[in-house]
Amino acid sequence: MSRVNVMVPYLGEEEVAAVTEVLRSGWVAQGPRVAAFETAFAAAMQAEHAVATSSCTTALHLALEVVGIGPDDEVVVPSFSFIATTNAVRYIGATPVFADVDVTTGNLTAETVAAVCSERTRAVIVVDQGGVPVDLDAIRAICDPRGITVIEDAACGAGSTYRGRPVGAGAEIAAWSFHPRKILTTGEGGMITTSRPEWAARARKLREHAMSVSAADRHGQVLAPAETYDEVGYNFRMTDLQAAVGIVQLGRLPEIVARRRALAAGYAKVVDELTGLRCVADPAYGTSNFQSFWLEVSPESGLTRDELLVRLADADISARRGIMSTHRQPPYVGVAAPGTLPVTEHLTDSTLILPLFHQMDDSEQGRVLEVLSGTGAAG
């Protein structure tokens, strides 16, 4: 019996050919493929501008910097997210303020954000957790009038929709991830999308040491102009090797999302008939790409979350504990007052992530469903 992994990247010969072409071109750093990927990604996500970066974490870092967040500012974030969401706030010296999330979606809401905003709040980072779209319009309705910038952490969101458009299309600025755990991958890598040309221009400059002339432009000239560095920048660049993979992956996105949604429906059909188990689902205002298919385990199932994880492991099935609570990690202990994030803590303690990947076959999903069917009593 072979192991069922929680996630397997969907890569093929097209990606191999694309990388080979870049290698043979002699230009492998940030260059024409990165530019082409930015253009294609912006079009696919209905964004006006796209800026490729080395990761979603660096994209968040740049997003906070270009919108003007600094050491005297507070930034509202969900604790119920990978730690990078909060780390980016610390990188620029601002103060993270944790807000609780909705128990059904795992996302921030207008109500939870409003409850923790103060006169020092300058930005809110909302997350499309696991690919479930956040209700962006509702949150912007309370933030925009106060001059609070909403940054969308769409790390998991490529292929999800919000009110009939791609996730992130309605954001002033959004950050994306292409880590192998995501359904669109470049190995590592990220992207900023924004409606503001001045933010895009500054992000492009900052990602490349704040050089006045890009390395690609200098390479294209026999006698390159001398560059200047007017501020402290970063090395947050994507390579053409990564972008070549990203262009192919972007073309696969509709197929990948359709397959993941079909597999998610197969899980839901069984889980909905079991007592004590609840699976993630589309919210009323959008559709999920099911980048993560998470399951809530209630006492009525007769098992704890950790006991179910052990049963799955005994069947050689690799599931994962649910999304972390960042405020429980050592760097952030004490940031949130005890008892202020009950939903976050409940979901972290009671959810797990089931295997879901494009190549998953019926027998592999059947093995997972067999374990689940042996836990919750029939409803």
CATH architecture of the largest domain: 3-Layer(aba) Sandwich
Helix content: 25-40%
Task: Describe the largest sheet.
Answer: 7 strands, mixed
N-to-C series of helices and strands: HHEHEHEHEHEEEEEHHHEEEHEHEH
Structural class: alpha/beta
- CATH C-level name of the largest domain: Alpha Beta
Number of helices: 12
Q: CATH superfamily membership of the largest domain, which one?
A: Type I PLP-dependent aspartate aminotransferase-like (Major domain)
Overall 3D form:
globular
Q: Mean pLDDT, rounded to whole units?
A: 95
* Share in β-strands: 15-25%
How many domains make up the 3D coordinates? 2
Spatial order of the strands forming the largest sheet: 1-9-8-5-4-2-3
Radius of gyration: 21 Å
